[in-house]
Amino acid sequence: MLTGTAPSTQLVRRVNAGAMLKAMRGAGVVTGTELMASTGLSRATVISICDELVRLGWLQELENQRGAGEYVKGRPARRFVFDDSAATVIGIDIGANKITAIVADMAGTPLSQVTMSFRTDTVGADERADVLDKIAADALDKAGATTDSVLAVSVGVAAPVSRDGDVLTVQEFWKSFDVRGIISERHGWKVLLENDANLAALAERWQGTAQGVDNLVVMLAGDRLGSGILESGRLLHGQRGGFGELGFLDNVDGVGDTYGIAHYAVLWGQEALETARDSTVLSELCGQDPAALTAEMVFKAAADGDHAALKALDRVAGRMARVIGSIATLVNPELVVIAGGVAPSAQALLPGIGKQLPDFTFTPPRLAASVLGDGIVSLGAIRHALDYVEEHALDLYPASLPKHTAAKNTAAGHTAAGHTAAG
């Protein structure tokens, strides 16, 4: 009886502590009564966990000060504030042509962002690890944080990843590059691995246009298509991490592969130029050389009313309607967000996609383009790392929570201002 009860009690306590940390981040100074209201926990549970979180370094308890002559009946309410600068997390996006790293504090506020152009498939595992070391070191230095302030690192990769953080074994490139093992061995950090589109979905629901949306698809749609899917607010992985993989599009009529918006904007823009009888804005932008055409040129020319560019983008919108229609039929989301570097341009495609979408699904979702930019995967990695920290807050002891002076000083003014405003 006791054997089964103790682990269960500890698990409940961890869950409660995570709920309280989540409620306190960004809330400023809060009282036990306010935490009871926001979490639904009893006063005894709230105070007990607050005392433990203060001991571990997560919270600060503020002194209760009364003005001269002020009289308040009963014991003054205990006031607590979350220590945003207690530690840091790192979010890393390993893309095909660049790596982006963000360092954030415990409130999820980015302290730095560093991007480095790099083709990870052209060098060996040791060289890739060295580049990851450099970009993480640069990001920490720019943030004014130390390596021992890092509680968790989340890494996004363009491959299926299981719930346990293992890359699908058929992905040969990632089999030869043990990201988690290498980073953990070199620094002793807790390293989490996740699919890049899944991280984009976490970012979008956290800080993007999908805040508050529980049934969501986020599509990275640049050169390739990838999707992260949330159902009832839960990120879906499938048995081995393949949920949301879009290989089935190879067999969808009018789609045929998983190339994305940027790829087809260029391809069909080139085809439109070849059939155009007169010089167009598009031909002028690429210097009369279709081989020099970029997706940005196609969208720019279309915005100027260029008929060749509009023809190309109409084809892209039709293809994306088929893609989104297929996904909507399978998972029935409330909202589909087009994300990644192509998102600002993709805004122009939404009316065309929305008009054709009912032809391909009986349950057309709302459509939106992300406003989080091409750092969306790294931002989602920050959310992923913070989720881990919240879940394991009671297992992280003071030795794991050093007060890195530089970040503490940097955050002091921000924290005080934020708490005053939020109070």
Automatic annotation (TrEMBL):
It holds the Pfam family ROK. GO terms for molecular function: kinase activity. InterPro entries: ATPase_NBD (IPR043129), ROK (IPR000600), WH-like_DNA-bd_sf (IPR036388), WH_DNA-bd_sf (IPR036390). Signal peptide: none annotated. Keywords: Kinase, Transferase. Belongs to the ROK (NagC/XylR) family. PANTHER family: BIFUNCTIONAL UDP-N-ACETYLGLUCOSAMINE 2-EPIMERASE_N-ACETYLMANNOSAMINE KINASE (PTHR18964:SF149), ROK (REPRESSOR, ORF, KINASE) FAMILY (PTHR18964). This is NBD/HSP70 family sugar kinase. It comes from Paenarthrobacter histidinolovorans.
